[in-house]
Structures are given as C-alpha cells and as structure tokens.
Specification:
By secondary structure, this protein is an all-alpha fold. It has one domain. Helices cover 76% and strands 0% of the residues. It is elongated, with a radius of gyration of 17 Å. The chain starts with 16 loop residues before the first helix and ends with a helix.
C-alpha cells in the first residue's frame, strides 16, 4: 500500500519489457500453444479425438510448462509473486511463496511427464483444475486487484474450466 491506501500492484503505468513477459507467458501457455498443438495434431490424425487432444495439450502446456515456470520463478524470485501479483510488499511472505513454488514445480513436472506417460493426463488435469479454480476464486476476491492479478484470475478460471471439463468428459466416457 502506498500513502494513499492504494495497492502498488493495482496502479496502471507504462508496460516495461520485463513486465510484458508475464502476460506473454500466460497467453502462450494457457491459450495459444495448447490450442495450436491440439489443432496441429488433429490435422495429422485420420480420426482425431478432440477430448483427448484438449486434455493432452492443455495439461502439457497449461499445467506442465506454466506451473513449472511459475514455480521456478516463485521459488527463486518470490518478490514477483508477492509484490507484482498479490500486491504484498513484505518479504515475510517469501517463505510461503517459495512453498507455493515448490508445489507448482511438483505439479508442473507431472504435467510435463504426461506426454511420455498418458496415464498422468487425467489425474494432472483434475488436481491442477481444482488448484486453478481455487486460485482464480481467490484472485477474484481481491479488493485491489492489479493488471497482473487480473491476468492470473482470468487465465486461472479459463484453464480450470478447460481442465475440469476435460476431466468430467474423460470420467463420463469411462463410466459408459
């Protein structure tokens, strides 16, 4: 908070190149690369399974790559998450941000491994979908949400819907 009671992360100013990396990584890993990978693979298959392709590529990019990158950044540079996303200036929260980073790295590794182990896709989608849903809800509750937290909220809710929709569809198939 600054002297006016405004969260520094909520102020809008010019976007510096280092600040543009976060939205670019989010847009690429949560939307463009998974959708593009699924479409690319679908065009190469005689009878593509859209549900499987959505699960495969959104888990790989949205869980594997996204959470691995986020976890590495949270673990090595906790100030970005605490200050630039959550608007918390105190370094007292760094220990919690690092723990979140370790959890994100662990989830991310499972998402990355899902390309080699397709049986990891459904559990990864289910677990990460629940995580992203709760994270998106929490970002939505923020009274002083800035640009980066809004990006996190929208992308978290979007990926939660995709992952949980895939999980529901995959589970429904197994029941029939």
């Amino acid at each position: 908070m600054d002297g006016r009671g405004v969260n520094a992360a909520s102020e809008v100013g010019p976007i510096r190149p280092e600040k543009a990396v976060y939205p670019l990584v989010v847009i690429l890993t949560m939307f463009i690369l998974p959708a593009g990978s699924a479409l690319w693979e679908a065009m190469s298959l005689a009878q593509p399974d859209p549900l499987l392709l959505v699960g495969k590529w959104f888990v790989f990019w949205g869980v594997g790559v996204r959470l691995s990158l986020a976890g590495l950044r949270q673990y090595t540079r906790p100030a970005f998450t605490s200050r630039d996303i959550l608007g918390i200036e105190s370094p007292d929260v760094f220990v919690l941000v690092r723990e979140l980073g370790a959890a994100n790295i662990a989830s991310g590794v499972v998402g990355l491994a899902s390309l080699a182990m397709p049986t990891f896709i459904l559990p990864s989608a289910l677990a990460a979908g629940i995580f992203y849903a709760f994270a998106g809800i929490e970002h939505g509750k923020s009274k002083h949400r800035g640009v980066n937290e809004t990006i996190a909220m929208v992308s978290d809710i979007f990926i939660a819907v995709v992952l949980l929709g895939f999980a529901a569809g995959a589970l429904a198939r197994r029941l029939h």
